[in-house]
């Protein structure tokens, strides 16, 4: 039975691309929502139709508490006191993904994880498209989900962040996967890592097939009605085997892909390819197409991307590294006899960088810390660290000392929003400077 919105008092929180897509959705349903943004000058203010009332600069308590339905953008925390009060009063608070889930009939593949979700989602989309499916990649990457509803689709690949999962309740996926869970966004969750983990695992709730990482031991098989397929360990359905210096992707006991014959760089990307292989097999995509796409797949921009090589010095842009574990993963995948010049910093989101201390002390590494939390991060490994205010300053200093066989690695382990619009802007600056400096 279709949902009726025309008689509801609807409020949208956030005048971004998501918020604008929500306005258009409700207008088509015969409902006229109101909209609020905490910024006084939101970027998309000029996109709001003239018949829509809006307020700027803060969450208007009266509007919130008189609403029947609130659509919240992922950038706004669900745990703000006024929103918790609204829930207690029975006001429904959902995301645009929840609206989408209520409307669509096409199969959905849902992918989440602290790291790697964009890469896996992109791999699966490429395989699906080459297999003849009209497939859309949406959610945390690509287009706002509500903008896709009117387009005919055979399949949706949905990349989901924890922020989006906070307010999704009706999503029924054909396949769901949690790639990994590491400490991240601890500043967002009142109950810390445990709460973040529970939100990530909620992706399995209404899933037909659960793809589960046994290596991480993050999920317990509770529901006998569900189908479980596993990856990550030698006794999983899908796993990576190390043979004579090479890594191979296996399905049960069948050798599928020799990673040395791919363009993939880094063990974490072999793991990403393994999940893409599993999803593709479950969907019934032709195995030869899956293998061909994964062999030709190149690391996504800003994700452990070698952007410049000169005088036997490699410059690696891993700006998408926004948590401590992603920095550790990047360091583990660097093979060099020279020095690693590591750029760390930004907004650490209450994360504990001490978990890197013992690891960094064993490496031949010089650490340049920058940004909002750069000073505190530099104290973790004092003898190897220096603090500068800006990324540009750090790179100029590094350029004067770097030598052949060295690697310059931007893997900040932090959010970029203290000094940049997003991780792409931070990564693009690194790319530009690495070419100019060297």
Structure description:
The chain is of the alpha/beta class and 438 residues long. The chain has three domains: 10-94, Rossmann fold (3-Layer(aba) Sandwich), CATH 3.40.50.720; 99-296, Mur-like, catalytic domain (UDP-N-acetylmuramoyl-L-alanine:D-glutamate ligase); 305-437, Mur ligase, C-terminal domain (Protein-Tyrosine Phosphatase, Chain A, Alpha-Beta Complex), CATH 3.90.190. It is built from 14 helices and 20 strands. β4, α3 and β5 form a beta-alpha-beta unit. The mean pLDDT is 94.
Defining key terms:
438 residues; alpha/beta; Rossmann fold; UDP-N-acetylmuramoyl-L-alanine:D-glutamate ligase; Protein-Tyrosine Phosphatase, Chain A; six-stranded parallel sheet; six-stranded mixed sheet; 20 strands; 30% helix
Topology:
Blueprint: E1 10-13, H1 17-28, E2 34-37, E3 54-56, H2 61-65, E4 69-72, H3 81-88, E5 92-94, H4 96-103, E6 108-112, H5 117-130, E7 135-139, E8 155-159, H6 162-165, E9 175-178, H7 192-201, E10 209-213, E11 227-231, E12 238-243, E13 246-251, E14 254-258, H8 267-283, H9 287-296, E15 305-310, E16 313-317, H10 324-332, E17 340-345, H11 357-362, E18 365-370, H12 374-378, E19 385-387, H13 391-399, E20 407-410, H14 423-437
Parallel strand pairs: 1-2, 1-4, 2-3, 4-5, 6-8, 6-9, 7-8, 9-10, 10-11, 16-20, 17-18, 17-20, 18-19
Antiparallel strand pairs: 12-13, 13-14, 15-16
Q: What is the architecture of the largest domain at the second tier of CATH?
A: 3-Layer(aba) Sandwich
* Radius of gyration from the alpha-carbon trace, in angstroms: 23 Å
Largest sheet: 6 strands, parallel
Mean pLDDT, nearest integer? 94
Q: Write down the oligomeric state.
A: single chain
Q: Distance between termini?
A: 62 Å
Q: Strand arrangement, largest sheet?
A: 7-8-6-9-10-11
């Amino acid at each position: 039975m279709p949902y009726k919105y025309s008689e509801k008092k609807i409020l949208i929180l956030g005048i971004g691309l998501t918020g604008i897509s929500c306005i258009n959705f409700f207008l088509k349903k015969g409902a006229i929502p109101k909209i609020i943004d905490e910024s006084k000058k939101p970027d998309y203010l000029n996109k709001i139709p003239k018949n829509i009332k809006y307020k700027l600069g803060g969450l208007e308590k009266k509007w919130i508490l008189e609403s029947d339905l609130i659509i919240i953008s992922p950038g706004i925390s669900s745990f703000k006191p006024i929103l918790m009060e609204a829930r207690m009063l029975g006001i429904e608070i959902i995301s645009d993904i929840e609206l989408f889930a209520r409307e669509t009939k096409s199969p959905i593949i849902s992918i989440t994880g602290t790291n790697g979700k964009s890469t896996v989602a992109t791999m699966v989309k490429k395989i699906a498209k080459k297999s003849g499916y009209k497939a859309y990649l949406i959610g945390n990457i690509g287009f706002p989900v509500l903008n896709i509803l009117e387009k005919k689709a055979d399949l949706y690949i949905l990349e989901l962040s924890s922020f989006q999962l906070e307010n999704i309740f009706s999503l029924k996926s054909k396949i769901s996967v949690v790639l990994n869970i590491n400490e991240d966004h601890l500043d967002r969750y009142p109950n810390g890592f445990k709460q973040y983990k529970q939100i990530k695992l909620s992706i399995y709730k209404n899933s037909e097939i659960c793809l589960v990482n046994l290596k991480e031991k993050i999920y317990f098989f509770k529901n006998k009605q569900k189908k479980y397929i596993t990856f990550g360990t030698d006794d999983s359905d899908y796993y990576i085997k190390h043979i004579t210096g090479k890594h191979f992707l296996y399905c049960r006991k069948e050798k599928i892909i020799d990673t040395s014959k791919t363009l993939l760089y880094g063990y974490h990307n072999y793991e990403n390819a393994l999940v893409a292989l599993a999803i593709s097999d479950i969907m019934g995509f032709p195995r030869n197409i899956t293998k061909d796409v994964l062999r030709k797949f190149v690391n996504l921009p800003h994700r452990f991307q070698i952007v410049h090589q000169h005088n036997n010095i490699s410059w690696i842009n891993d700006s998408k590294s926004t948590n401590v574990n992603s920095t550790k993963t990047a360091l583990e995948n660097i093979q060099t006899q020279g020095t690693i010049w590591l750029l760390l910093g930004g907004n650490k989101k209450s994360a504990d960088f001490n978990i890197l201390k013992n690891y960094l002390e064993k490496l031949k590494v010089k650490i340049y810390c920058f940004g909002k939390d750069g000073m505190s991060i530099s104290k973790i490994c004092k003898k190897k660290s220096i603090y500068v205010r800006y990324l540009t300053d750090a790179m100029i200093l590094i350029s004067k000392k770097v030598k052949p066989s060295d690697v310059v690695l931007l893997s900040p382990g932090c959010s970029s929003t203290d000094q940049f619009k997003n991780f792409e802007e931070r990564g693009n600056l690194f790319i530009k400077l690495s070419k100019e400096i060297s």
